[in-house]
Amino acid sequence: MKTTDTVPTGVENPGSPGGPGAGVTKTAPPVPRRTAKAEGATLNVFSHGVLIIWAIMVVTPLLWAVMTSFKTDRAIFTSPWALPDKLHFENWSRAWTEAHMSDYFLNTILVVGGSLFGTLLLGSMAAYVLARFDFPGSRFIYFLFIGGMSFPIILALVPLFYVMQNMALLNTLHGLILVYIAYSLPFTVFFLTAFFRTLPSSVAEAAFVDGASHTRTFFQVMLPMAKPGLISVGIFNFLGQWNQYLLPTVLNTEPEGKVLSQGLVQLAVSQGYKGDWSGLFAGLVMAMLPVLAAYIIFQRQVVAGLTAGAVK
Amino acid sequence: MQHGKYRFIVGFLAAPLALYALFVIWPFIQSIYYSFTDWTGLSPEFGMVGFDNYSRMLDDEIFWKSLQHSLTFAVVLPLVTVGLALFFAFMLNVGGRRRRGAAIAGVRGSSFYKIVYFFPQVLSIAIVALLFQFAYNPNSGAINSVLKGVGLGSVQPDWLGDPDLALICVMVVLVWSTVGFFVVLFSAGMASIPRDFYEAALLDGANRFTTFFKITLPLLWDTVQSGWIYMGILALGAESFAVVQIMTVGPSGGGPDYSTIVLPLYVYQKAFRDGQAAYATTIGVALLLLTLAFAAVVMKVGRRERLEF
Lengths: 312, 309
What we know:
CATH topology of chain B: MetI-like fold
Largest interface: A-B, 117 and 112 residues
Oligomer: heterodimer
Strand content of chain B: under 5%
Number of strands of chain A: 0
Number of helices of chain B: 14
Structural class of chain A: mainly alpha
Number of strands of chain B: 0
Order of helices and strands of chain A: HHHHHHHHHHHHHH
Largest sheet of chain A: none
CATH class of chain B: Mainly Alpha
Helix content of chain A: over 70%
CATH topology of the largest domain in chain A: MetI-like fold
Structural class of chain B: mainly alpha
CATH superfamily of the largest domain in chain A: MetI-like
Number of domains of chain B: 1
């Protein structure tokens, strides 16, 4: 799964996006010896043109948000595109403490940490058994898992709400963790089953002959071999769970237990009458930056992880 | 290998399967059952009502509105997103100046473009929706002040507040946030097409746009088709719920005069705002059927002989 650097000339430093203009390169027309070459040159200018326009359209809203988070409320409304008169860092500290961004971050880290670990553990256990063992009903269980990928979650959420209520799991972080794991299993099992099937069976057999139990073979031999697959599916699940909005909106409505995405929406609704828009923008940027930074650092793995499922 | 095999299988499958059955499968089955009851969700008592919810749904004007909007999403969004992404990916891969005899070449800095285009994909859709809600603000939002700045002060649309524009505004946001993913996906597919194919076609006098339709698209067909289904499911499901619920006005989202209501949001409103859980599951079943029908249609229409290369 190689998704980046397919073109040898792509040498811009991935660590520094450097603004929308950084992709501009020399477009001086080459000597048009043949018409085909002239066509190529025109196309080249045209391609750079449209590609740069879209890059600007992607980056501008994000930069605008960063800029706005440093402005005063008055400036936000009177001149939305002007640079801030000075960097109002107090917006950020207000968002962090008064607007509960610190709580939202902590909740999100707890929920995603727990559910990511659970998803990878349970997902790889199920996938390993489904990929390597033949037993009655194995195909049925496999399709039961992957069927969950295409069903609209909202349909299940109505009864799930009451299932959770009866089990006293509603509005608790551990309840949310269990639900995140359950709804991450279809893709995780699908992906890891395919991955375990590609691993050579001779190693596992050798371990087994040497007296290792099935369980020990799995944890000490197979799981380390599956590391690349676990990383890809782990990144996929991390982003999905970190950004999750629908599940917590329905199942986790206590104000102090909110996770980032729903906490921000809550903030936006309440700022409607408090009028602290600069604080809200600071919160937005605060939530945006860690994910963007992580993406830029690990971009090769992130892209591989996120596109892995669609290619299969 | 037989020793303890079944004990191991049961031991490893029990926990994931139990969790999955309890939180995913069981609620799905329950919701189909509930759609034949008059359950409110507020009290545990309910009775069977047969197809009453379904006939009520067929007379429900707002249901038809949300169905129409969800259908629009499922048709327009994959078309625009996949189309734009194919265009950008093609530009990235063959739009470059040729160097040293290569028939086609990628543009310079193509990896930079791919990194930037992918940004929205890693952000929460909730954050994206909030951001654009501000951009669309009619009084002091980013878009209207740009219009003012370029001398179009008289053109100040109400964007999300305008029943005719709100749905388009919402769709633009979904396109903005998903195009990058497909550019990267298609670009990887295009890069694996052997360059000789292009070389041969160009030698035979084809221009680059012909090569797109005669070489690139047919060889990329499988990826395009799965991308199409992926985008459609996304446009029918959680993504459209988040964008509409967060961005549009009206009582708990849905736009002025329900002009942006979509099926998942209508399910949510009926269940958790109006206390009509049984009716909500009925609409949910309609959404399930729509999703399955969409996937089936795309697979059927898109069926081509698989090309090996």
